[in-house]
Write a structure and sequence with these properties.
mainly alpha, MetI-like fold, 20 helices, about 70% helix, extended, membrane
Length: about 400
């Protein structure tokens, strides 16, 4: 028995170590679990709901389930069979009685502009029995029910999911033959809006980089006592509402504002120029608001770069510019990439600033997302625009991750 105790002691220590490690893991999970729950409820779930809403097509199936099932079984050629017309007439009359046709009318109007009036005019006073066949009865009440194009739209609306909103968000549609085609030129607006959004965000990002890089460089080279004080001034805009800052720029940039008066006083201009309600105002206000998001990543990276590297390069015969370009600048690339990515992503989603200081031709995608959400109540279109913007942002982040990964491999 005494000889077995030394053998049992390592086993006891291993079991105790496993219990300790398990307890530490459980404590770590308990500490981060609230964060994961918060992200799942308030971040991932809304994104998931937005993606679902962008393809949701439940208006007609929820109100006319029998008609939707019959339309899905129809091959889509010509006019549907009489059973579809009969089912549609029965559920149309029922929807008129219980006032549930609004959602169906709104969904059909997205593809055929006058379908709301056609649907409600047909539903009012619809007879209980057909005059001949239901096909003839419905076509007599409105010729639209005798056209194959109308029933092609009905068949697309009967599916539980639809690509309609996502296609419309990139100026595409499904034509009469069922193929994806470009929308007419007078309706093709969203690709231009996305191009405008990315262009404004890119210009703002470049301006923030041009202004933020030397500022971060100076802050990183100063003693901590002075740099910390100046950093407070950089962070000062965070303590003011974006709406207040944007409103202040409207006052400063207007034709009778202080900026125009100052430029006239020093002789730069002879008469006031338009600096607000145009692209200039959007650039100025967005750069002012987003500049700290560029300075902070740059400063955090530059603070960790030892000045001995540049001094060593100059002691070996390099000029100050060559030492900066060959030694210092490559080490700040992660900060430049992080700052540009952060500013660009924030820029593409801006709404308040372009809406207040920009003109009609300066509105970005977020303006139209708000328009479809709050005014036309077309949540499918709003979700589709947001989904396209999300995909573009994820692609940008993927490119950034690839570039940073390649850069780190080269440095390694």
């Amino acid at each position: 028995m005494p000889s077995a105790r030394p053998q049992e002691r390592p086993r006891h220590l291993k079991a105790q170590l496993r219990r300790t490690e398990r307890r530490r893991k459980l404590e770590a999970v308990a500490l981060v679990a609230p964060l994961f729950v918060f992200l799942a409820v308030f971040f991932l779930a809304p994104i998931g709901l937005m993606l679902v809403r962008s393809v949701d097509n439940s208006e007609l199936p929820s109100v006319m389930p029998d008609t939707a099932a019959a339309l899905r079984q129809w091959d889509g050629g010509g006019l549907p069979p009489e059973a579809v017309f009969a089912s549609f007439a029965r559920e149309l009359a029922a929807g008129q009685r219980d006032r549930s046709l609004s959602g169906v009318a709104k969904r059909l109007t997205y593809e055929i502009p006058n379908m709301r009036s056609v649907l409600f005019a047909t539903a009012r006073g619809l007879p209980d029995a057909p005059e001949g066949t239901w096909r003839q009865t419905l076509a007599a009440r409105n010729p639209a029910w005798g056209e194959p194009a109308t029933w092609a739209v009905m068949r697309r609306a009967a599916a539980p999911v639809t690509p309609y909103y996502l296609l419309a968000a990139v100026d595409r549609e499904i034509d009469a033959s069922g193929s994806v085609a470009r929308v007419p030129a007078d309706r093709a607006i969203y690709l231009d809006i996305f191009a405008r959004t990315f262009w404004i965000a890119a210009v703002v990002t470049l301006w923030c980089l041009a202004l933020g890089y030397p500022l971060a460089y100076k802050l990183a080279s100063l003693p901590p006592r002075i740099s910390n004080l100046l950093m407070i001034l950089v962070l000062l805009p965070f303590w003011t509402s974006i709406l207040v800052r944007t409103g202040a720029w409207v006052v400063l940039l207007q034709r009778e504002g202080p900026i125009n008066e100052t430029m006239q006083w020093i002789g730069l201009i002879g008469e006031p120029i338009q600096l607000v309600y145009n692209r200039v105002g959007v650039y100025v206000a967005m750069v002012h608001i987003l500049l700290p998001f560029m300075v902070l990543p740059l400063y955090s990276v530059m603070r960790g770069i030892s000045p001995a590297y540049v001094r060593a390069a100059t002691s070996l015969g390099a000029t100050p510019f060559t030492a900066f370009r060959r030694v210092y600048l490559p080490q700040t690339v992660p900060g430049v990439g992080a700052g540009c990515l952060l500013v660009f992503i924030l820029g593409v989603g801006y709404y308040i600033t372009p809406a207040l200081v920009g003109g009609a031709g300066d509105q970005m995608v977020s303006y139209f997302v708000a328009f479809f959400t709050n005014q036309t109540i077309n949540w499918g279109m709003a979700a589709a625009l947001g989904s396209v913007l999300l995909v573009a942002t994820l692609m940008l982040y993927w490119v950034y991750a690839r570039l940073v990964g390649v850069d780190r491999m080269r440095m390694g």
